[in-house]
Amino acid sequence: xxxxxxxxxxxxxxxxxxxxxxxxxxxxxxxxxxxxxxxxxxxxxxxxxxxxxxxxxxxxxxxxxxxxxxxxxxxxxxxxxxxxxxxxxxxxxxxxxxxxxxxxxxxxxxxxxxxxxxxxxxxxxxxxxxxxxxxxxxxxxxxxxxxxxxxxxxxxxxxxxxxxxxxxxxxxxxxxxxxxxxxxxxxxxxxxxxxxxxxxxxxxxxxxxxx
Length: 211
Known about the structure:
10 helices, elongated, 0% strand
């Protein structure tokens, strides 16, 4: 029986888990479908950066090569899109920084016409953290999410105001906040962000091994 018959159905109808299983058995069509299905995601991240066509191509190739190398470490195949998006962003940052370091200083002004690496990195990483936090908040129960959002406003409302707005006892706000924060740290979005960010910062890509 062929790998296609074992997995069942056309490639475009298969789940990510089925495609990963097929790719790991050497089924080139499964790997091609993984790339086809997520190419738009890679391109969307690349377009956020002012990269040349050659740089964009290099970023995509690096992402796919690293994914292929570590595909066997993937414990949660359905988390693959999140990993690809984050890995592409980090690779774009690395490529952009490398390009800026090679730009000569303008002899007329003594300055570069590009922002400092630290400023660009800081802005991009702040955007990434905000996106991860928004996704993590969406995983929380509504009452915990609403409480954390209220407490994050500036200036934060008093507990009495929160009690009136949410219809909860004042004495329950503190304990609910602690439970919400603890649950937030355990969300898939925060776990992916921390795991992928740490691994890529160290120059590795073992963040595929989520779970």
